Amino acid sequence: MFQEKNEEDALHPVQRSAGRPDTVRLVFLGGAGVGKSALIRRFLHDRFEHKYTRTVEELHVLEYDTAGSGRLRLEILDTSGSYSFPAMRELRIRHSDAFALVYAVDDPASLEEVRRLRGEILELKGGERASITVVGAKADLTEAEGRVLTAGDVMATVEDEWGANFVEASARTAGNTVGVFRALLHQVELPHRLSPAICRRRDTLPRPAVRRRPPLKKNHSCVLS
Ligand code: GDP
Ligand code: MG
Fold first, then answer.
1. Cβ(46)–Cβ(59) under 8 Å?
2. What is the mean pLDDT of the segment spanning 98-126?
């Protein structure tokens, strides 16, 4: 069942009775062209586009009524891969609950960028435990098609040295795209039954949800009951 979200709801989120905040933000960071938007698009719309469209910054908002525990606003922030102002990236990092650090399996430099981003997150989040999931995107690529990074090697670094989650996924084939979101939702202690099948039934509303945040472009709403 859909539930339309109006402006007032967005500006005055319903208070949750449990300790969990009523808004949870996941942010996708990583170099340009690694496949961040494609993963999000596959999860939300079950679509894939070969054509590359550069993202400026996009905030997807999903709203759920979780049975028994009230309303939940899930924000998925898709970033450009490069910020002209480092202060802006800092702000995004400070205001996010869980991080998908995305690299492409055919681009070793993008893994270096993930390493750098992890360092920045740890620094900015200070003593707080940072919820990081490293995502090897374009997992459909074979060696002949340009894959140079193997899952085993990266996993060893990410899981053993960094103590972070690791998943590989392909937005093109949809392989393990759900696994990316399952890992992120798990890190913020949300049930992974916030599944794409349910999200696909989202409603798209014409107006941005929060006027205070200009980059908002999309606004989806769906209800879990
Ligand atoms: P972003 O800049 O990180 O958001 O990257 P995009 O999601 O826009 O993807 C950049 C390019 O990589 C596009 O041309 C996509 O079609 C392609 N791409 C994205 N995901 C995959 C994937 O899983 N497999 C393959 N083979 N190509 C992908
Ligand atoms: Mg993008």
1. no
2. 95
Which of 27, 28, 29, 37 to mutate for ligand 1's pocket (most ligand atoms within 8 Å of CB)?
A: 37
Residues with CB under 5 A from ligand 2 (ion): 36-37, 55
Token pair 């709403």 is at which residue? 221
Task: Give residue ranges with CB within 6 A of ligand 1.
Answer: 32-38, 49-50, 52, 55, 81, 137-138, 140-141, 170-172
Domain covering 2-220: architecture: 3-Layer(aba) Sandwich (3.40)
| pLDDT tens per residue across span 20-35 | 558 899 999 999 999 9
Domain residue extents for the chain: 2-220
Rounding to the nearest 10 degrees, give the CA dihedral for residues 35, 58, 204, 131.
70
Cα(175) to ligand 1 centroid in Å equals: 14
Distances (CA, A) of 62 to 57, 136, 195: 17, 25, 11
pTM: 0.80
Strand partners, 136: 103, 168
**CA 22-25-27 angle, 5° bins:** 175
Residue nearest to atom 14 of ligand 1 (CA): 52
